[in-house]
Amino acid sequence: MKYKKRKYFLAGRINLIQRSKIRELFEKAKKMEDVISLGIGEPDFDTPDVVKEAAKRAIDEGYTHYTPNAGIPEFREAIAEYYKTHYKVDVSPNDIIVTAGAYEATYLAFQTLLEQDDDVIIPDPAFVCYVEDAKIAEAGIIRIPLREENEFQVDPDELVEAITKRTRMLVLNYPNNPTGAILKKKTVKAIADIAEDYNLYILSDEPYEHFLYEGAKHYPMIKYAPDNTILANSFSKTFAMTGWRLGFTIAPTQVIRDMIKLHAYVIGNVTSFIQIAGITALRDKRSWEAVSAMRETYAERRKLVLKHLHKMPYITPFKPKGAFYIWAKIDPSLDMSSEDFADWLLENARVVVIPGTAFGKAGEGWIRISYATKKSQLIEAMQRMNEALSKL
């Protein structure tokens, strides 16, 4: 018997994963000259000096070896202190695992809690990784729409209607990417009650918690449903540490124990000296002063971009209360899909925005604009967009 020769073998599951439309657009933009990107969700600020200095010092002090799989105990204690100080929530350091950013945290949650024939409810639109994580876990995916008339909050009534006997988990991400929406306290409480009544886990992804505007507040889901919540968080946005890949998860004891088992075989442990820098980020007032300065700058940019967008033809922005994105509606009279509109802006204005459909079918008719870039570039991008749209 002869076997068919192949140059390589691939697991079928890898074909389930879709390539990010965001990355495809960036690659197209790279081939063009004089392009301004309002696409990527990355702070344009540098990591606070006090955090960088802490990492350098940690290397010199010998933090270059393996750590416990769950993370350095003092770092996990600092995270627990943070939740006690900021939110009056008691968290045991033993219920915390240090991860390679919130990306790994969400991956661990999907792989630990879901299996074939389980269902997970994912809002639409939503950040791109959740659906792909669900596919790898071989879970069924139920999308519930986030509606403009409800300020892009999850509707508790629609949530209940979507739950089946197979539903095991709900994904939340507030402050929200891509819409910039926040969850009001009454909605947080309602969702917490539903999770307890239907025995659901809530994966609550909260990396934008410190970028809030006009008096908005963040209510961590773990405060209202501690026995049902897997909280994923990251230092990437708060402290402008995207390249450091530092995050963490808080979960019930029985869940965190099994997440640590998987984590041990995925990466072993997060880089030791980066964890030490994380302690400084949480405990040093200078790092929090830097966060405050970033938030003020984002608030100014948000106001600037909204002002320009309101004057433009064919586009209407939703006023965000959190994160650093503006979710803007395309005028239906243009008869252009979100992807066509984003391509048109790239070709005619040399500005990158993200089509709403990158985040789900309910994103059709919308684009996401990031204002995590310099004021001068934002002004130039707004002028280019206005000039191009005025010619339609």
From TrEMBL:
Tell me which EC number(s) this protein carries. 2.6.1.-
Cofactor(s) it depends on: pyridoxal 5'-phosphate
Q: What class of enzyme is it?
A: transferase
Q: Which Pfam families match?
A: Aminotran_1_2 (PF00155)
| Transmembrane annotation, as ranges | none
What region holds the Aminotransferase class I/classII large domain?
A: 34-383
- Mind listing the GO biological process terms from this record? amino acid metabolic process
User: What is an example of a GO molecular function annotated in this UniProt entry?
Assistant: transaminase activity
Q: Which UniProt keywords apply?
A: Aminotransferase, Pyridoxal phosphate, Transferase
Tell me the superkingdom of the source.
Archaea
Keyword check for Transferase, yes or no. yes
Cross-referenced Gene3D superfamilies, in alphabetical order? Aspartate Aminotransferase, domain 1 (3.90.1150.10), Type I PLP-dependent aspartate aminotransferase-like (Major domain) (3.40.640.10)
Keyword match Transferase: yes
Assembly with partners or alone? Homodimer.
Question: Which PANTHER family has this protein been placed in?
Answer: ASPARTATE AMINOTRANSFERASE, ASPARTATE AMINOTRANSFERASE-RELATED
Family, per entry: Belongs to the class-I pyridoxal-phosphate-dependent aminotransferase family.
Descriptive protein name: Aminotransferase
Question: What species was this sequence derived from?
Answer: Thermococcus radiotolerans
Q: What is the lineage of its organism?
A: Archaea, Methanobacteriati, Methanobacteriota, Thermococci, Thermococcales
